[in-house]
Design brief:
With 178 residues, the chain is an alpha+beta fold. It has a single domain (39-176), classed as 2-Layer Sandwich (Phosphorylase Kinase, domain 1). It has four helices and nine strands; from the N terminus they run ααββββαββββαβ. It has helices at residues 2-18, 39-50, 106-114, 160-171, and strands spanning 54-56, 65-72, 84-90, 96-102, 122-126, 129-135, 141-147, 150-156, 174-176. A seven-stranded antiparallel β-sheet has the order 2-3-4-8-7-6-5. A hairpin with a 2-residue loop joins strand 7 (141-147) and strand 8. The chain is elongated, with a radius of gyration of 21 Å. It starts with a helix and ends with a strand.
């Protein structure tokens, strides 16, 4: 009986491996497709749940892959963890960039998204508006600005040109009422 169970297990593992359920790559990771997320749909559906107007960036480069989306709705928010909507993309160079939107206090948003935040180190003009610049985790760039009651935060490992692109896309994007 043990021999038959062993034989069945071997056949099952061989079939599992043949149909892509298992990969074996000793010593290194293999390249594969990046995950994809419905950022536009997520931002649209999240707006009524977070309780503030959410911007859907317009005119992002065709080569950017939307690969992450998450949110914390109003019911789960607290004074130190505000309601927030996050969307992320992989740029054409394979670097990550994200846009977070929140109606919480700027300090609470920065703390929630970046952890230990460095003091502001300047400003930059992007999308026709001024952004305050700082650094976050892993010394990644972070740009923040507030419009009305909503604070926008761009962060990631992308190039300054990509930050400019996302900032302009957020400034000219469509607004979904909250």
């Amino acid at each position: 009986m043990a021999i038959s169970m062993g034989l069945i297990a071997v056949v099952a593992l061989v079939l599992y491996g043949m149909y892509g359920g298992v990969s074996f790559s000793p010593g290194q990771a293999i390249d594969g497709p990046a995950p994809t997320a419905d950022v536009t749909g997520g931002l649209t559906r999240a707006a009524p749940l977070v309780g503030f107007p959410v911007v859907i960036p317009a005119g992002l480069p065709a080569g950017w892959n939307p690969n992450s989306f998450s949110f914390v709705d109003k019911s789960a928010a607290s004074t130190t963890a505000p309601a927030i909507v996050r969307a992320g993309w992989l740029t054409t160079e394979g670097r990550f960039i994200s846009l977070a939107q929140s109606d919480g206090a700027v300090a609470d948003l920065l703390d929630a998204e970046l952890g230990a935040v460095a003091p502001p180190n300047g400003t930059t003009m992007a999308g026709g508006v001024e952004w305050t610049t700082t650094t976050g985790r892993r010394q990644e760039a972070a740009w923040v600005r507030t419009v009305g009651d909503v604070t926008f935060l761009i962060t990631g490992s992308a190039s300054p040109d990509d930050f400019q692109t996302l900032a302009a896309a957020a400034a000219t994007g469509s607004v979904v009422p909250g």
